[in-house]
Amino acid sequence: RPCIVFIDEIDAVAKGRDSRLRSVGNDEREQTLNQLLTELDGFDTNKPESVVICMAATNRPDVLDSALLRPGRFDRRITVERPDKVGREEILQVHVNTQDLPLSDDIDLSSVAAETIGFTGADLANIVNEAALLAGRKRKDVVEHADFADAIERSIAGIEKKRNFLKGREKYIVAVHEAGHAIIGTAVSNLLPNLASEVEKLSIVPRSSGALGFTYIPPNDDRALMFETELRGRLAMLMGGRAAEDA
């Protein structure tokens, strides 16, 4: 019967071979790769009743052995990009439907998709799960937009470490640093209204990611290119924190 063979994380067994770096420890990996190549060449695809379609996935295509990618093996490559706004909304809807989450009337998944520019499908799945957990902890009957906002913030900056509040001089330095980011970020947004986003949130609460605070300036749309003025503005915003400390 026809069948589909799917190999996930194929880079684990099909990394490129380099004779200059070859060692005894790599023998098993090379034998595995050689056997995989042999099996791929052994499929008889001329008989419709015995067609085997081989598919593989990796997030490191640059390390794959060239022999694996030659015609007749994995010769058709499809790049899965990060989803755009429409794709993110559809992915969010899939996970909401899968979990059968009751949503409040104030939730518009289109707006949630607009707030998650650059997120992958796995990131979006995690956000839906996190929003549901946050709503459950607050004993809510429905998931509200605030729960999604908190879930997005956790995904970007990490979980708040509410028992480790900053004190004294340390708190002052972090506050000044984040204020510097926010001031310059706001100035850049006013100077480049069509390119730079506005500052959305400022915090000096330590996070599980290791950050002592953060200034959140979300991207305003899905774009593949950044202009020089936009890059200069972003650099100025990033340096604004250190400049504020020296002021």
Protein architecture, described:
This protein has 247 residues and is mainly α. The protein has three domains: 3-69, Rossmann fold; 85-157, Helicase, Ruva Protein, domain 3 (Orthogonal Bundle); 168-246, no CATH class. The chain is 44% helix and 6% strand. Helix 2 packs across helix 4, helix 4 crosses helix 5 (145-157) and helix 6 runs antiparallel to helix 7 (228-246). The relative contact order is 0.09.
Write a brief structural summary.
The chain has 247 residues and is mainly α.
Topology:
Layout: E1 3-7, H1 27-41, E2 52-56, H2 85-99, H3 109-114, H4 121-137, H5 145-157, H6 168-191, E3 201-203, E4 214-216, H7 228-246
Parallel strand pairs: 1-2
Antiparallel strand pairs: 3-4
Helix pairs in contact: 2-4, 4-5, 6-7
What are the salient characteristics of this protein?
Rossmann fold; 4 strands; mainly alpha; two-stranded antiparallel ribbon; Helicase, Ruva Protein, domain 3; 7 helices; 3 domains; 247 residues; two-stranded parallel sheet; single chain
